[in-house]
Each structure stands twice: as structure tokens, then as C-alpha cells.
Amino acid sequence: MSRSVQIFHHNGLAIEYSIIGEGTPILVMHGGHSNCYEEFGYRVLVEHGYSLITPSRAGYGHTSKELGASLATACQAYIALLDHLQLEKVHLLAVSAGGPSGIYLASRYPERFHTLTLQCAVTKQWLTPKDKEYKASRILFRPTTEKYLWKLVRTLNNRFPRFLFKQMAPSFSRLTLAEIERMMNQSDVEELRKMNNRQRSGYGFVYDMATPASISTEDLQTITSPTLIIHSRHDATVPLEHPIHANQYIIDSELFLCETWGHLIWLGKGSELVDQKMIQFLEKHP
Q1: Closest by Cα among 154, 127, 150 to 202
Q2: Fewest CB atoms less than 10 Å from the CB: which of 27, 120, 194, 241?
Q3: CA quadruple 17, 23, 29, 33: dihedral positive or negative?
Q4: What is the pTM of this model?
Q5: Binning pLDDT at 50, 70 and 90, where does residue 203 land?
Q6: Catalytic pick among 34, 56, 96, 271
Q7: CB-based contacts of 183: which residues, under 8 Å, 6+ apart?
Q8: pLDDT per residue over 156-195, tens digit each?
Q9: Cα atoms in the Cβ-side hemisphere of radius 13 Å centred on 81
Q10: What is the structure's pLDDT at 210?
């Protein structure tokens, strides 16, 4: 896939973004540890005539960390990017830790979005300072040292991809490793290897741990765009209570619980149904 990467400046701050494909535009709020080079789920959308616009969210990639001062500040910049690209109305796709950004955008700027899709998305309070995962993440992904952690991951990742897959997969899935291996596709190890090679945390993941607290049930209730919520039943990263919570409060929402092996819903057996559901939903709401 051909990808164009550019920098847009808004109020003196930088927003890095990429564009893939030509056709009906989709604004993508990528997940944690990611950036505008994300590619999970992109190919099928491009093949069906969609264009994906992916800003590196606040603190990720070459986007200014100052945009992470608040969810409102960051989302104002994403809307300014749409204005810069002369896009009056687009589809909106929010993935994993990008969920709060997608929810805020759809709630506060309803006139700018045809639809909202939440994929394995955080939709409410996620990690708190009391959680051991929160405490560990604050240490492992500290902005001043996270690059060294990812350098180590990439080294192991490229030399021993299957070994690292076995170490990481249980963090994405509630299934046992044996169950995960039965539900894998042959390409899953390679896809995880490529994912690890493009990941960095920057200041972005620190913001991602804090922003879910900014999302309220009122934000969900004010979303008027048709909404598709896709989540794996076996997700260990973002618990099932998140999609159920969103489906409960978003008026015009549809919940699709898939049977893929974990949080990375684009991998494994059943991932083709995720692609089909996504395309059917978008074509239903052109």
C-alpha cells in the first residue's frame, strides 16, 4: 500500500499524518504504542474504495506532545486537520486506546462524521493508579526511556519472532497459549513482528492511560452517528465490559462480538468476519 506522510501545523503545534488509498475518507484514531504508520485492517478498506487518514495522536510519532494537554485540545487539532484537507464529513474509526478520542470527536463534532466504528476500543475508565498494570506501564513506557525498551523488543522480535509471539500473545488474550495456537493463522507471527517494529510509546501512552477518565456516559449518550462496536470475546487487553458499556449508552449502536483469539482482532481465524462486518456497515451508511 502506498502511504503519503506529511506534517500539518495547527496553532504552532505539529500533527503528523498519513493518507493511504483513494476514495471515501475514514479518519483513524490509532491504538496505543502506534502512530500514522499503523496498518492493521487497512488493506481490505483500501481495496473496497476507502481512503484512510491517520494522524499520529498526541505525543506519538512526530505529533507535538503539547496536544496531549487535554482530550479537547487534541481533538480540536484533528478537526483542524480535516479542515486543512477540505473534508467536511468523513467516517470515523477508533481503535483500542484511540477509543476515547473517537468517542469525544463523535460526541462533540457530530456534524463531521457519517459513522463511528469502535474496534477493541477503550470506552470508559481503563487503568487506574492503583492497578499493577498502570504502575508497570508508568515505569516500562516512561517517555525518557521507552525507546530503549522498544529497541530491545525489536531485536528479540526480528531474531526470535515465534518466541516473542509466545511471550506476548497471552497479554492480548484470555485463552491459553495452546488455544491461541489452534486459532492462529500462519501469518500471525509475521504480523506481530511487523507490529512490534513500528511501535513506540513516546509521550502518547502516558496520555492514553489518563484520557479514559475524561469520557463520561453523557459523551456516549450524545453520539448520534450510526455506530459499530467490534470486540473479541477473548480480549485480555480491553475487557468485555468496554464494548458492552458503549453499546448500552450509544443510542444507534450495533455490537459485534467476534471469535478471534484476542485483542488484535485482525489476526487469526475469524478475522475475515471482522473485515466483512466492517465493509457491510460502511456500505450500509454511505
Answers
A1: 150
A2: 241
A3: negative
A4: 0.96
A5: very high
A6: 96
A7: 175, 259, 260, 261, 268, 269, 270
A8: 999 999 999 999 999 999 999 999 999 999 999 999 999 9
A9: 30
A10: 87
Burial of 8 (0-12, 13-18, 19+ CB in 10 A): middle
Q: How far apart are CA 154 and CA 199, in angstroms?
A: 9
Phi and psi angles of residue 214, each rounded to the nearest 5 degrees, phi first: -80, -10
Which of 235, 246, 224 has the alpha carbon at shortest distance from 270? Answer: 235
For residue 95, pLDDT over 80 is answered with yes
Contact 226, 115 (CB under 8 A): yes
Identity of the residue numbered 176: T
Q: Is 61 left (phi over 0), alpha (psi -120 to 50) or beta?
A: left
- Name the band, by pLDDT with cuts 50, 70 and 90, for residue 128: confident
Q: Give CA 47 to chain center in angstroms.
A: 20
Judge whether residue 213 has pLDDT over 90. Answer: no
pLDDT, the chain, mean: 95
- The HSE-up count of residue 271 (CA atoms within 13 Å, CB side) is 22
- What single string gives the DSSP state of each residue in 185-250? -TTHHHHHHHHHHH---TTHHHHHHHGGGG--HHHHHT--S-EEEEEETTBSSS-THHHHHHHHH-
Active site residue 56: no
Closest CA relative to residue 93, chosen from 74, 117, 121: 117
Domains of the chain as residue ranges with CATH: 3-284 (3.40.50.1820)
CA distances from 186 to 121, 175, 232 (A): 26, 18, 19
Are the C-beta atoms of 199 and 147 separated by less than 8 Å?
no
C-alpha dist (Å) from residue 41 to 164, 199, 205, 272? 22, 16, 21, 10
| Confidence tier at 23 by pLDDT (50, 70, 90) | very high
